[in-house]
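FAQ: What does the model actually see?

It sees only this:
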Amino acid sequence: MEYRRLGSSGMYVSEISYGNWITHGSQVEQDAAIKCVRTALDVGITTFDTADVYAATRAETVLGKALKGVRRESYELFTKVYGGTGPGKNDRGLSRKHIMESAHASLKRLNTDHIDLYQMHRFDFESPLDESLQAFDDLVRQGKVNYIGFSEWDSTQIGQALDIQKKYNWTRFVSSQPQYSMLWRVIEKEVVPLSIKEGIGQIVWSPIAQGVLTGKYLPGKKAPAGSRASDKKSGAEHISRWMRDDVLTAVQKLKPIADEAGLSMSQLALAWALQNQNVSSVIMGATKPSQVKENAKASGVKLEKDVMEAIDKALVGLPEYDPKKNVSPNPRS
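And it is asked to produce this:
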């Protein structure tokens, strides 16, 4: 495993992060989840990403149990706030009330006294931005959070926040957590250039496009039993947009490219995202230890220019580049 600095911060993260978005607490039983986390540690993964809303807060609890007894200084723990965690009108968003209450609840579920990276899970169109940013700054000053970031913000929203942070000398963002893969490249035109300028690193999710880039889904064929596309509990609705014959046919063209490079299809997808030097880490999920071991081998892989060009040729016309597709939900719309 190789490691990169998170943006301009002094903290290093593993190039491959372990995330438990739609696995822990829902798709994977607790014992299996713990085995995956321990395997991640064994192969050198030190960065673990979760969120309070994953599996209705259960994912944080499972991750906290899986990391119990591991030296706290030996890993980086990331979580997020924004989504609904209860039935109340204040159980969502980025108000100071919800941020503070959610942070303390996450600390308890994760069985720790601090969060290494606390992230605004989406942009909140209802809460004043300075209110949200001051709450995050206060958590840092209280020693409960080390670094702060955001997920799925566009360049305008990022710029507004950075201006406020600079004005009040509040803790600045060091990370962005966007969706990014061979098929979804919407951050490249605006978010990445701004992030490079401002010292913000990308921690990308869905680098394998929900599993489509593994090549296991074939055009004209039913999804394999037990796969994400066939299991409503494991995010079938998220992968459905890629389950088109044109996409699945093009993905099959990546197999000889992966074979030539001596990589599995998933390793090729992860390594592709890591070729972007603004990417600090790519998040992978797993339902069994063997997947963790395989995916970890994507760290340190250098893809030559001709390989990158061959990938673009295989997928021509399919990747999404439009920065306007990088959006947070607006309850006022």
